[in-house]
Amino acid sequence: MKIxxxxxxxxxxxxxxxxxxxxxxxxxxxxxxxxLGAGKTTFVQALARELGxxxxxxxxxxxxxxxxxxxxGEFMSFVHIDAYRLDGAAQFAALxxxxxxxxxxxxxxxxxxxxxxxxxxxxxxxxxxxxxxxxNEREVIFE
Length: 143
Prior knowledge:
single chain; alpha/beta; Rossmann fold; 7-stranded mixed sheet; 4 helices; 7 strands
């Protein structure tokens, strides 16, 4: 689907409506693929607003991971991971993913999941972002 960056809030609203507590007791996992500047972090910021995060969401490029309190149904935390600087599953393990991936009250968004291939379970929602033909246009693909 082709959208403008301003329309990412609508996509985030649609994704938020698809989020549900899982029967397996695991976190709800969303992976975000796409090149630099394609809108992944902008989408995460929009999604966090939909989930009730009361603070501005900043990219965790250098800290790698940030956790925010939310009140979205039974979900109490939103975890945002930017795996761009990670090189494989071993480096990802340093974030202690078992703590947040096994939390049924967590929604986890991972940018650049291909950087930690094999370390994540199958995502509940996978999105790909690409630059559009116009500067403010993006293509969002539900995988």
